[in-house]
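assembly run, all chains below
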Amino acid sequence: MDKLSTKYIFSSGLAISNKPIIMHTILGSCVAVCLWDKKNKTGGMNHYMLPFWNGSGLASPKYGNIAIGQLIKKMENMGSNPETMVAKIFGGARMLQEHSHIFDIGRRNVELAHELLSDNDIKIVAESTGGEKGRKIFFNTKTGEVLQKLL
Amino acid sequence: MKNLSDKQLLSELKIRVEERQQAIQKLEQLNNELYRANTKLMESEQLKTNFLSNARNEIINPLSSILSFSQAIAFSDQDDPVEIKKMAAIIYKEAFELDFQMKNIFSSAEIEAGEAWCEYYQIDLSDLVEKQMSKFKNFALDKEMTLVLENRLDSDSGLIKSDPAKIQIIISNLIVNAINWSERTGKIKIGLSKQKDKIRISIADRGPGISKEDQKIIFDRFKSLDPKVHTGNKGHGLGLSVSKAYAELLGGDILLQSQPGKGSVFTLVFPVAPADQKTMGSSDNGQDFIFDNDTELF
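ok done. output:
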């Protein structure tokens, strides 16, 4: 991988870049959707913790429906459209010790990504979800490649 | 096909009917949940609309008073130093509140856009808390109240790596709420301690307390329990929702202990960041990637 500047995506955060950078994050039951536009070499990543905002707290990208909606909108503002965008999704592990009270929040996070991306006609070209291990991912916005390390 | 006896048939039928009933019940339950979520979302949108129309008053009114008092000082013949000092105090108070409200508004916008990051620095927590307290001392004095610090941190454990700007916003919101909600006179206790690897900053007031019902909605955006009639409080109902989101960003939470009639204690709890935490915010440790068997390219 080239020497590129990096940006850590905190949970509930999201970022878009049309410059070549590495966006990286660490996921457990959270999900990160990486959108990449091969035409104008723009990439964006989010990192959400729960599927739906139910009106509690702030309407932030902590929730999948908001995080994915915002990511797509921001990519579109940068000149991308669903035909030129592809998606890669990561995370959604079953972290039992962490979330024993909300069983399989990870699976629901992943399902939501599938639903919303298909609603927006964005193709999922790669996916590494589920399982019981956390993930560390590195998204290169120049090439669209994502390196993943299981934790 | 196997012939079933009437008895078997009946019991099979019974099982199916029960299953169906359970499914219907589950569906009803889900429907109810959906209905509740939908109501809450609509309510939240309504609150946002109210907020925008209220914001006009709450921003323009203090600005007009700042403009008129500063104009009086700068351009009128007023040269009585006592009067000028009084006017300057009003200008300061209005500007301070405006600044406080604007910070909450911009913070919530940043959080809702997913653009809130932590920036970690080496800080002296005791110093930071004391500075915040002294900022609000005058407001407390207006209500004849005092802010008391109970610092159980020794000089070493107060030196931590964290995001000072986020902590400042959280503490100032909790202090302002405590002042606004308390009766006149009395103390607001601010406790500072460290248990295991977690910092606890608690703000205890002698206000009316918060019922269990209200505790559920108190962190929602644009929600204020205050009818504003008897206290004349300002505020948009953003402070606690912003504070909670920032606490989560720090890897912690805000805990609430309260009973009607017995005051409230809000406690910010967050883990002390490990020494290498600065690499999380803006770093180049993405380059330290080691390829091994667990690495895959997508």
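Chain A touches chain B through 42 residues (CB under 8 Å).

Strands of chain A lie at 6-8, 14-17, 22-27, 31-37, 42-46, 85-91, 123-129, 135-140, 146-150.

not gonna interpret more than that til we talk
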